Every structure is written in C-alpha cells, then in structure tokens.
TrEMBL record:
Residues 16-265 form the Peptidase C1A papain C-terminal domain. It comes from Anaeramoeba ignava (Anaerobic marine amoeba). GO terms for biological process: proteolysis. Keywords: Signal. This is Peptidase C1A papain C-terminal domain-containing protein. Coiled coil: none annotated. Belongs to the peptidase C1 family.
C-alpha cells in the first residue's frame, strides 16, 4: 500500500515539466496585470503620517491576482479580464487585513462567506475606509455625484487550502493556476533589478512580512538554479526588465517562500 502511494507521488512529481509558466502556455498568457499596492496614495506634505505611509495591502493583491488568473484560466482567456477589488477588502474585510497588513489564511474563508466585487465598483485608493454602501460599490459622474450600486455582482471563493511541500505547490499551480505565498522581504529584494536572473537570498531570513503569487517555475542553466516565477505587487517599475515579476530560488525555502502557501478557487 505504502509502496503504491510512493509510486503514485513519484509519478505525479516526475510527470511535471522542467519549466512551466502561466504567462506562456504555448505562447499565450493566462496572467492578469501586475498591480501597484502603494499607489495612489494620500501624499499630504503637511502630515508626516500620510507622507510616510505605504499601504501594506499585499495580502489583498496577492490573493485577488491569483483569483483573477484562475478566473482567466477558467474562462479560457475570454475577454475582458476580471479584476477583483483589493480596495473592497480594505473597506470591508478590516477584521482580516488593513493597510497595516493582513492574513491570507483568514481572508480565504472570509471570501468564501462574503464574496468580493470587481475593481470598477471600488477602485484602488491605497487607504483604509469604512464598509459603507458607497464604499462597497459605486457609480460616479462628477464631483460628489456618486451613488451606491445595490446588489453588485460578487465573486466567491468555492474552495481553498494550504500547500506544505514543493511537489504539492507545483502540482497545484500546474493543474489549477497560480497560488498565494508569504515571503520575507530583504533590502536586496526591494532594490532588485536583476531581470530574469534568479534572486537567491544568502542571509537565510524567513520572517513573513509580504505576500505574493507564484505563477510557474523554471531552471536557469547559467546559475544552475531552479526557480519560482513570482508576481509582485510593487508595479512594473520594480525589477523593470522583468515587468514587476521576479524569479526566486526554488526548493531551498528561500525567503521562507515554501512555508506559507495557499490555493483558492473562484
Ligand atoms: C501546448 O502544446 C503542446 C504541444 O503541441 C500540447 O501537447 C499541449 O497540450 C499544449 N498545451 C495547451 C495548454 O494547449
Ligand atoms: C539566467 O540568469 C542569467 C543571469 O544570471 C540571465 O542573463 C539569463 O537570461 C537567465 N536565463 C533564463 C533562461 O532565464
């Protein structure tokens, strides 16, 4: 019995390709755009707090981006792409996350219960707001001419779970689409401009302080390293030669990327 189980795992693991990228499935991308969690921002020169504050909404962007991709995959790339609203989460899911950070493992059951509106209903503002009717979904014509939309279309998470091994992570990405993982951010990662070279942290730091989505994997022959292909949410100006994505060493729990991984199906 045990033997067959191992044989089964072995077969699954080794039937996966050496490289796989939802951004290039036989030349077609099933990925939605890179987002920018820090903008727009209330930049009031006279208020030190506003001036310094960057919205820590990575938990909302990583999760919505993975869900946006899975919707795109399920809809076979049919246009237009659907973007779920991180601002709606800042407004209404304040018990699971704010601009000061949040927990993906708490967000997924929240999304299963409450659902989420589209970006156009509640565009990104990079600031925590109240969950009023206007802040759930609105339509605006001019200054102060906004009305709340009643019963806006909502998308729900149908199933979710955690992933604890590298083969499980690969299998899940391959079969169903991008996944959501927590990582540690280092000053070197913040300043990274290496394009598609593999980022390999040598400091060993694993303290969770950022969330991203994993969209595939590969192997770099020059560096002789396996890597994850990762979408960040710091705009396309971050690591610009790779459009806001980055490749991170795979299989060595670099930056703790293999510690806190989750999948969610729309
Ligand atoms: C991509 O192309 C290969 C070879 O032509 C084919 O076997 C595979 O099914 C294709 N994949 C998709 C997702 O269309
Ligand atoms: C591998 O990394 C090098 C930099 O070390 C980079 O120039 C090259 O494009 C990468 N190759 C692939 C296939 O990503």
């Amino acid at each position: 019995m045990k033997f067959f189980f191992f044989l089964f795992l072995f077969t699954i693991t080794f039937s996966l390709p050496i490289s796989f990228d939802w951004g290039d499935i036989n030349g077609t991308s099933y990925l939605t755009s890179i987002r920018q969690q820090h903008l727009p921002q209330v930049c009031d020169k006279f208020s030190l707090i506003n001036y310094l504050k960057k919205c820590g909404s990575c938990w909302a962007f990583s999760t919505t981006s993975a869900l946006n991709d899975r919707l795109k995959i399920a809809r076979k790339n049919q246009k237009p792409d659907i973007y779920l609203s991180p601002q709606f989460l800042l407004n209404c899911a304040s018990d699971v996350g704010t601009c000061d950070g949040g927990w993906v493992i708490s967000l997924l059951p929240w999304l299963q219960k409450n659902g989420i509106v589209e970006e156009t209903c509640s565009p990104y503002e990079a600031i925590d707001k109240e969950c009023t009717d206007l802040n759930i979904c609105k339509q605006c014509w001019g200054t102060n001419q906004c009305v709340a939309i009643s019963n806006p279309k909502k998308y729900y998470v149908s199933s979710y779970g955690s992933l604890s091994t590298v083969p499980d992570m690969m299998q899940e990405i391959f079969k169903n689409g991008p996944i959501i993982c927590g990582i540690a951010v280092t000053p070197d990662l913040e300043a990274w401009t290496g394009g598609n070279a593999v980022f390999y942290d040598q400091s060993g730091v694993q303290s969770l302080d950022h969330w991203i989505s994993l969209v595939g994997w590969g192997h770099n022959d020059t560096q002789n390293l396996d890597y994850w292909i990762i979408r960040n949410s710091w705009g396309t100006e971050w690591n610009p030669d790779f459009g806001g994505f980055f490749n991170l060493a795979k299989g060595v729990n670099n930056l703790g990327v293999e510690n806190w991984c989750y999948y969610a199906n729309p």
